[in-house]
Each structure stands twice: as C-alpha cells, then as structure tokens.
Amino acid sequence: MGQEIPRVNASELLSSNLEERFETVEVLMDPNLGGDSLNRLMHKLFYFRKVTLRPSPSTLFHSLEVAGALRERGVPTSVDGLPHSTEPFLVRKTPLTPDRLIKRNVAVLTGKTHPTWNVDGMTAISYVTDFDWEGYLIGRDFPLPDPRTGLIGAILNKTSVVTFHTYGEKLSTGTLYGALGDEEYLVRPNRWMTDVTVVKIREVRGDQVSVLSRELLCRPLGSSFVPLNRQEIFNLLLGLRMRCAGLPPDCYLKF
Amino acid sequence: MRIYVGGSKGGTGKSTVAVYLFKRLKEMGHRVGFRDLSQNLIGEALMKAMKLTPDPDPEFEIYDLRSGTQLDHGDVEILVTEFPYLSLDLEETNSEEERLREEMRSQIGETKSRRVLVVNKVSPVPEDMQEQVRKVRELAWSFDHVVIVPFNGNLFYNNLEGEPTLDVLAEILAGKRGDKFVYPLAEPMHRRP
C-alpha cells in the first residue's frame, strides 16, 4: 500500500485501479459524470478505507449523494476537507409502517433513483410502477421519488422539497420544488429512518434556497431535504420515534 | 457497583436513564439490581411495564433517587439534567466549596465516586445544538464522563431502545471504554459493523 494520498478526477478514477494500491483517496468531483457513472464511482469508493470528496460548484448534488451512501456503508468520508465521519448503524428494532400512520397505502414510484434514495427493510414501503396507483404515491403526491423525504412528506402532509446543486465556499444552494411558508429548516433522515440531519435555511431567492456549506457538508446524508419549521421537527421525531444527533463532534469543536 | 441516578428537578428523564441503563447492562450479560427511591415511582412502573426484573446478588445496583437528593457515596453518581437547568444544576458542583470538599476527601483517602453528567433532550435545531454542546463543554469540566443525549422520540414515549449515547454510557459503566465526552453522534461498540 502506498503512503501518499492520490488525488484524482472522479471520471479518471472509474478507469483506474487505485483501490488496489491505496487505502485513501481524494476525489475531485468533476462534472463529467453521466449515465450510471455515479453508481460505478460509489462502488469503486466502497473499497477505500477513507475518502475525501472535493466538489466543484456544479457537482454538489453528486457529492452529497456519494458522500451520504459511503458514510452509511461505514466508509469515513469528508467533503471539502471537513472532518471525516461515518453514519452510525442505527437500525430500527420495531418496523416503521407508514400505511398505519397515515391510514393510506404509501408507495414509491419506481424509476429515477440515486445512491441515497432508499430506505432500510425495516421501513415497510412498496415500490410501484403505476402512476395511477391508489394511495399516497411518493413521486406523484410528493415531488421526488425519494422514499426518505417522501415518507416525511406523507406523514407531515408536506409537498415541498429542496435539492442541492451548487456548492459555494460559504453558502450552498438548492432548488425548491413546491412552496415555502414558515419553514426555517431543512431535514433529511438516514436510511434507517432513525435519525435526521437538520440544516438552517439562510437565504431564499425565488426558488433558490441557500444554507451554510459547513452545516450541509459536515454530515452528508444525501441531496434532498424537506423544509420544516421547529414544531414540525419535533412532530417528526415524536411521530416516527426518531432522534436528531446533529453534526460529528469535530464539526462543533473546529468551527 | 452502586450507581446513583439523580437530578435536581423532575421531568429531566432521570428514571428513563436509570431504567435504560438497567436494560442495557442486562442485555450485555450483567446481573443488575434496581431500587426506585423516587417520589413518583416512575422507574418502578417502567420496569413493570417492560417486564424487567432486578437480579439477586447484582454486579450493578442502580438507584433511581428522589429529585433534589444530594448525590453522594455511590461508586458512580449520574446527574441527569437538561437545558435550561444545566447552569443552575452545575453551580454547586463547580463551586469552590465543592472543590475544597473533594480535596479534603482525597487527602483523607476516601475513594472518590466516578461522576457522570447526562444532559438530556438536547435540541434538534442546529443553532441551539451548537450552543448547547459548547455550553456543556464549558461547564462540565469537573465530571469524569459527560453524555450529551439528543431529543429522541423513542425515549419521550418511554420506548427504551435506540439511544446510542446511553448504550455508550452502559459500556463506560461496564469498563469497556472511557470516553470523557459522549456526543449525540456516538456509535456504541456492539453496533459497529
């Protein structure tokens, strides 16, 4: 194993065999990732013991998705030099049955998916292809077919979502699908639906919503978030028996 | 080992923490006793509801103390508090008299109790959590271990599972680790893949 940490473009990493020679890698998330390359990149990165992702302004979405999936697989990951962290494996002991909570069948529309648009098997959710499916359909009644944010939407009756795309040194920006009312925070759960990360909305310009990059990137769990107000965060934690562990300690101590 | 769990006011989750530790230490294979000395007997009711029974001849005896009882002479003393009461609760602990008392105890060779602070129900809102973590680190210097427990819907409904910070505290009590600070994003040893 080599001592130096290789620094490569994501698209170059795909055709290399660096994972056979190095334990750690620094990946420049270049904009040339298309098609199924994001999944291929992620599967390559699973082989490393430690990963640092460097987003470019236009690759924030991919960086958040890859970092979230790696962290949930137990690979210590850092985005943009922030502390490396993994997501604790906090699996539900009792199944989460959204159908019972909202007294409607809840399903996710199959089709477009991303590395963190998934939930653990303890969350009882169906996947359907029928757009006219009766019941609450995540991807039709909620803007994105992402089961994690969609479940929050179903339970709290929310129909808006923010998806991040542009990285900036201080602020990062996402597009709002739907409308904002008195929501001040953006929330995204882990794949086990047991814990959430919360970031504060700092700026809204039309459908563009900005948050502090440090807050967004210190504990990446994916790219899409549901806007909630303070009371709704508590309602979510109580309703789904979840917790909110905030950021890794180094993020509090260093900044 | 006698473990005293106390707090200055009701509603901080003292009994929840006491019963959680009982359950977790049992799951870890230890013999554990439990004595509810509180005024409302919530701990005992929780034990009954969860069908938990204390073991005879325990390695760990957990005492759920009456709110406001002076924590003293346990092998481990766990103070459970929450915001905004933290500063008030730590006023006495951090006082000059308490420091002198501790000094005197060590001079006469009295075994010092291990002292644990559990700050329960830390806010999920990022700006509050950042401030609360900062405050805990600033004020809790005199404790051997400090456990920062985030707001948890499971614990709120007395569903005593899924709180990694308290799992870590059980591991500390069992001598498996020695973290000074246990942060909300902690990972217990048994859950590591």
TrEMBL record, chain A:
Protein name, per record: Uncharacterized protein
Taxonomic lineage: Archaea, Thermoproteota, Thermoprotei, Sulfolobales, Sulfolobaceae
From TrEMBL, chain B:
Superkingdom of the source species: Archaea
Pfam family, one: MipZ
SUPFAM superfamilies in the cross-refs: P-loop containing nucleoside triphosphate hydrolases (SSF52540)
InterPro entries recorded: MipZ, P-loop_NTPase
This protein's name: CobQ/CobB/MinD/ParA nucleotide binding domain-containing protein
